[in-house]
Write a structure and sequence with these properties.
By secondary structure, the protein is mainly α. It has two domains: 10-40, no CATH class; 46-205, no CATH class. Helices cover 71% and strands 3% of the residues. The chain has helices spanning 10-18, 27-40, 45-55, 57-73, 77-80, 83-95, 110-126, 132-148, 154-185, 194-205; strands spanning 100-102, 105-107. A hairpin with a 2-residue loop joins strand 1 and strand 2 (105-107). The longest helix is centred in the C-terminal third of the chain and has 32 residues, at 154-185. It starts with 9 loop residues before the first helix and ends with a helix.
């Protein structure tokens, strides 16, 4: 693990060790302050999520793998679910403010949607060969872990990620794929099923 040495004045060090709300001792406090800085500065929010995604990689990959297993059985899993299961998922997502009802229409609130779009862009940029719909699933998994604050089990996160992507967020990955295709070929494909063909192939190959 890389080590960073920092020279502090006596007063700077005195203030550092006096910060009772900052976890750790001495140098550990600097690491805690660094993490807090990443999470609190809007311009650095993307890097904060990147760091958390790296730390939670094994768990996220495990949930993603379980999603692939479902798609290997059927290309449209939500269609096979009972209404009670869907209603329960919607209630849980509403409780953690991932869904809300506005003027009788159930929508994804702006906070979650904006974070999702940021993460989708970041994840797809980090992994240029990754299928856009896979990147979208990873983004949703990460956000469900955050918004759920430990209240959602892995099975619920798995099913909720599928429901959100198919019901509300599918269009963002689709539009990203179309934009990438246009940049490569200068021929914008407008076939609705085109973006999902690549996703289902990725699932089969997983």
């Amino acid at each position: 693990m890389p080590k960073v040495e920092v020279n502090l004045t006596d007063k700077e060090f005195e203030i550092l060790i006096s910060l009772e709300k900052v976890e750790g001792k001495d140098g550990e406090k600097l690491r805690s302050l660094y993490r807090y800085y990443l999470s609190s500065i809007p311009e650095l929010k993307s890097k904060d999520y990147e760091l958390k995604r790296f730390e939670d990689k094994d768990e996220i990959d495990g949930i993603l793998k379980s999603i692939f297993e479902i798609y290997k059985k059927t290309e449209y899993p939500v269609d096979a679910w009972e209404n009670d299961k869907i209603d329960k998922l919607i209630d849980e997502l509403t409780e953690i403010h991932v869904l809300e009802t506005t003027e009788g229409v159930r929508i994804v609130p702006a906070k979650f949607r904006d974070l999702f779009k940021m993460l989708l862009h970041d994840i797809a940029t980090e992994n240029k060969d990754m299928d856009e719909h896979v990147a979208a699933l990873i983004a949703v998994i990460q956000l469900l872990k955050e918004f759920g604050v430990g209240t959602l089990n892995k099975e619920t996160i798995r099913d909720a990620a599928i429901l959100l992507n198919e019901g509300w967020l599918y269009i963002y990955a689709k539009k990203m794929r179309e934009a990438r295709e246009f940049l490569k070929t200068k021929n914008l494909r407008l076939i609705d099923d085109e973006s999902m063909k690549s996703f289902h192939q990725t699932v089969k190959n997983a």
